[in-house]
Structures are given as structure tokens and as C-alpha cells.
Amino acid sequence: MSQERIVPRGLTKADAAAYVGVSVKKFTLLVQAGILPKPSVGDVWDRKAIDAAFDKLSGMSSDNDNDADRALAEWEAQQQGRAA
């Protein structure tokens, strides 16, 4: 059997904060401010949603910017629908 490590798409708050490179406290503040996305399922953050938000924050541009922006907007709309 292969010993390959599975890289999870879902991250705990501590893992998501480490992934972005900030403390858990700072990560919480960024989520509360709407700068980074809220958890997608329970207390699990979607790595791709974090990537899209962080790319937007950093001003990175690529051919996929419109796709990433659209995906992030759709995800945010779904999250708002769940919260309502």
C-alpha cells in the first residue's frame, strides 16, 4: 500500500490559520471582518475558498481570476443562504 499523504481540502480553524500564516486570533478577526470566508461545513474551512479570498486580497492576477471570483461569490451567496 502506498504511503502517500492525503492533503485535506477541509481545514480546522487552527489549520486554516496556519495555512494562511496568521494566528488563530487574527484568522478569527479576518473571518469576522468578512475578509476571509466563514467555515463551509460546521467548523471546517474550505481550502479553495481560502485560496480564492487570499488571492483576491493579495492582488494576484491570472487567467482564472474571473472563475475564482465567480466561485468565491457563489460560495459566499450559499453561505449567506445557510445563515438566513
Question: What would a concise description of this structure say?
Answer:
Residues 57-84 are annotated as: Disordered. Helices cover 57% and strands 5% of the residues.
Walk me through the topology.
Blueprint: E1 10-11, H1 13-20, H2 24-32, E2 45-46, H3 47-58, H4 65-83
Antiparallel strand pairs: 1-2
Helix pairs in contact: 1-2, 3-4
Question: What can you tell me about this protein's structure?
Answer:
The chain has helices spanning 13-20, 24-32, 47-58, 65-83; strands at 10-11, 45-46. The chain is mainly α and 84 residues long. The chain has one domain. Strands 1-2 form a two-stranded antiparallel ribbon. α1 (13-20) crosses α2 and α3 packs across α4. The longest helix has 19 residues, at 65-83. It is globular.
User: Pairing-aware structural class of the strands and helices?
Assistant: mainly alpha
Give the low-confidence spans: none
Radius of gyration: 14 Å
Count the E strands.
2
Strand content: under 5%
Broad shape: globular
Q: N- to C-terminal separation?
A: 46 Å
Can you count the helices? 4
What's the domain count? 1
What sequence of helices (H) and strands (E) makes up the elements? EHHEHH
Strand order of the largest sheet: 1-2
Provide the residue-averaged pLDDT: 86
Q: Roughly what percent helix?
A: 55-70%
Largest sheet descriptor: 2 strands, antiparallel
